Amino acid sequence: MLELLALLLPVAAASGWFMARRSMQRNTSPKRADLSSDYFKGLNFLLNEQPDKAIEVFIQMLEVDSETVETHLALGNLFRRRGEVDRAIRIHQNIIARPTLNRDQRSLALYELGQDYMRAGLLDRAENLFLELIELGEYMPEAQSQLLEIYEQEKDWGKAIEIARQYEFTTGVRTSDVVSHYYCECAENAIQQHDQREAQRMVKKALTTDKQCVRASLLQGTISASENDCKAAINAYRKVEKQDADYLPEIIEPIERCYRATNNMGEYKKYLTELLQRYGGVTIMLAMAAVLKEEQDDRAAVNFIITQLRKRPSVRGLERLVDYHLNSTEGSARDNMTILRDLIKKLLTIKSSYKCQSCGFEGKTLHWHCPSCKRWNTVKPIHDIVEA
Length: 388
Known about the structure:
Serine Threonine Protein Phosphatase 5, Tetratricopeptide repeat, three-stranded antiparallel beta sheet, single chain
């Protein structure tokens, strides 16, 4: 309300000045009386905290031309911010309909109307306006950015790729990392349709666009594994280390299946040892503990976990240690260990596993497109005393 009143005060002043000027130019006393009556009627609504009625009066008084268009644009933007999108649309449509506007004013009104349509969820209308602006060569970066948002919402990845490349050409801002995710979206659609060849083609395009695309390597590994090409899958998964080591926890389980399928667990153990030395991390450590348990026994796994927890404490490591001890504990000691395990599991249940490096959004699922800030490739596995 305060924001609206603050804007209406100068609008009222502008209305009075504008209409007084017009009246003086026309020099017709009856008209001045009518205008004065309307003006004071609007002021009365304003002073009685009836801004909506005041707006209608002032808008009717103010004809849209080069001298008043900024005031109308300001009112339209205010309505959009307040959520009164229908009013904003009417004001901006009224501006565009005026033949007296210059090119810059009309282009700005088109862009504002496009944002109104976006806010109202009328994506097809917004798309047409932004495409018109691009054809006119006006507000191109802004229009292209809005179109990207539209195509992402509609999951029209082909158009998104095209506009992203245009945006990079217009602004010089690198978009290859985003485009690679668009190709990955296409690949996932192809996988759902059981079109492995198309999925592979899209993954290759993603990696050609951005060699550092972790998501593309994970998809490549998944596709290869589904085709029983475990060697190719292992090679794909191992690329993740050089692309972004923060995502290593995502490859441990699938790469273990591939090594096991090829009867090459010795190479798997060697790879885990290398990763543990270079990066540490509870997921890698627990995978190594499972290998030691399989090769030797629970005691070997327990001793290994204890050694690792002294170097880097973690709740997940403690949980696994308690699980191993439960296998060899009886009586009241086992009851106490069970209580401890349940408490640890509860802690892990309420703790998020992933966090956006941009806005801080946390969740239990890996989102390549942050649900909060809408940025790509900013959500990563959490590495701390609970999850690391």
